[in-house]
UniProtKB/TrEMBL annotation:
<keyword id="KW-0597">Phosphoprotein</keyword>
<dbReference type="InterPro" id="IPR005467">
    <property type="entry name" value="His_kinase_dom"/>
</dbReference>
<feature type="repeat" description="TPR">
    <location>
        <begin position="218"/>
        <end position="251"/>
    </location>
</feature>
<dbReference type="Pfam" id="PF02518">
    <property type="entry name" value="HATPase_c"/>
</dbReference>
<keyword id="KW-0472">Membrane</keyword>
<dbReference type="GO" id="GO:0004673">
    <property type="term" value="F:protein histidine kinase activity"/>
</dbReference>
<feature type="transmembrane region" description="Helical">
    <location>
        <begin position="416"/>
        <end position="436"/>
    </location>
</feature>
<keyword id="KW-0418">Kinase</keyword>
<dbReference type="InterPro" id="IPR011495">
    <property type="entry name" value="Sig_transdc_His_kin_sub2_dim/P"/>
</dbReference>
<keyword id="KW-0067">ATP-binding</keyword>
<feature type="repeat" description="TPR">
    <location>
        <begin position="259"/>
        <end position="292"/>
    </location>
</feature>
<dbReference type="Pfam" id="PF13181">
    <property type="entry name" value="TPR_8"/>
</dbReference>
<feature type="coiled-coil region">
    <location>
        <begin position="442"/>
        <end position="476"/>
    </location>
</feature>
<feature type="domain" description="Histidine kinase">
    <location>
        <begin position="476"/>
        <end position="659"/>
    </location>
</feature>
<dbReference type="Pfam" id="PF07568">
    <property type="entry name" value="HisKA_2"/>
</dbReference>
<dbReference type="InterPro" id="IPR019734">
    <property type="entry name" value="TPR_rpt"/>
</dbReference>
<dbReference type="InterPro" id="IPR003594">
    <property type="entry name" value="HATPase_dom"/>
</dbReference>
Amino acid sequence: MAHSVRYIKSRISHFKKHVFIWAVLIFFLFFPGNLSGTLSEIDSLKGLLSITNNDSLLGEYYIRIGLLTDEADPELSIEYTKKSLDCFTRAGFTLGRARALNSLGYNYWLMGRYTEAIDYYTEALSLYESLNQQSGIARVANNLGAIYWGLNNYNKALEYYQKSLEIRKALDDKPGISIVLNNIGMVYQEWRLFDQAIDYHNQAVEIAEALDNQEAMAYSYYNMGLCFEARNDTDKALEYYRTAYEEYRKAGKTGGATSLVLRGMGDLYFHQKEHDEALYYYRKALNDALHESNIFRATSARLSLAKTFFALNERDSARMYSNQVLESAKTYSYDRFLRDIYYLLADMESEEGKHENALKYYKMAATIDDSIFNKEKISRFTELQIQYNLEKKERENELLRKDNEIQVLRIRRERVIRYSFMTGTLLILIALGVLYRQKSDLKRLNQEMKTEILERKAAEARIASLLDEKEILLKEVHHRIKNSLNTVRSLLTLQARSLTDPAAKAALKDAGTRVQSISLLYEKLYRSENVQAHSTEKYFSSLVKDIIHVFPNREQVTIETNIEDFMLNVKILSTLGIIITELITNAMKYGFSEDRKGRISVRLLRQDKKISLVLANNGIGLPEDFSLERTGGFGLQLVSMLVKQLDGTLNIHSNDETQ
């Protein structure tokens, strides 16, 4: 009996303690003003710290101070929030721990320290899930999505955003829905699907306007500005940026958010070569970022300032900001900033004639560029392929099982009918009963088949969506290949400038021309709806013009093209492009002197299942004793080898003109 009384008293004491804790929490949430006379809320909270030894209350005081200082001084906020975490841990208050971990993740995100932010957010999410605290799960999932977006892992970001959106719709959390819709729109922006992105941002604006939420409205307007900037609609983009800036100011959000908007306006003026205006907005962006101690935003603004001063030929200022960006990028592993600053430094060194240093920076930038390429997209592509194959196999097995069931039922019905005629009235009645049951089964199976057909149609629609996503990934790969080829060509050009041997320079120049022909193909594939094949007329016409353009005697030579237009596989197109490049290059270099005029014709025709390519010129012909087997030139040897790869034949004639 005494034990029972003690137990009841302990439970009552425990209940009172937690009721008091929640009362204090509600007071801080709804009455955040001054607590005693003229003292600020922070001073009042610090005063309360000295008059209690209850860990749960101490945790609430510390976390409140951390929230009040997070944007002004993230380092100080982290210090107080970690004390809060310690107090909640000692008190065994799981919800308090989850809140403190989420606040720590937010502070590290503000400082651009993404690795630490992910660790704290992930632990917070685990605690919220153990408590089944849906609003907390939605909040942390959205925060993790923002982190992965900043790390260019857009598939992972979208996964967390959709998880947050689903919960917030279930909770009818309209402010939260507006924020997540904006974030999903930003993912589609990065994928350059601007129609889908603008649709999500418009949905977010409608909710924010209904709630009169200026900060959410500003967020939406800024993202819509980004979409219009990407579409080269400068006036519309500037209009949305200015509206976003004003809404942030009205909401009292001067810091990382306004820094981002100001940098967007600066970028617009920079692209229009209005560098003084660009400097004005970039400097304001830097000041706002430093006001909030937002290292990521400050680094971004400094990079823009460095580029602008370089464009203005103010090298000292450009070097100063470049060094600051380099230091921050290395310290906090900002790969994109590090790549961009290496490219800028390479341009600076090249302008100053320091080609060896320029080449070094270009190589460093290219290495980082390769590491940035999103491995998650490649794994996602593989995952989609596997998922498609599994679902297809599963549907086939399910349909086969249904067919077998129907066949078994038909056989059984026929057997019952046959036996019924051999029996008496009693057996006939039994058979009729069985038939009735069979009919019910068939009706059920028919209904299941209808349902299966509907499910199959839905699955086919999903497969079509997966194929569309696969197409997007293929375009991304082609875009990446094109950029890599341009980098290779730039490196070859830089290397050629640093050489004095004419033969070596010519070899590097020829190699650059070959790389250019392949790069042109991938550029056209990236802009094309069909990434497996391309138009012969569009590709070869552009290629011939680009090749001729690099020769100083191009004005002396007339180009005639007769190219039949049809779709051709990318591999064959690439090979034929190299062959045309080599033959035109040889004709321009050896067939026409600087003062010799003439004509080069290119004909491409399709005859049945074969393709005929004829290149002719009336320049200086081949020697009378010319033989392809004895020629020492690399170009014609390469052409001969590529023709064999295509299972073709190479014929050379030299009479009035060389063909």
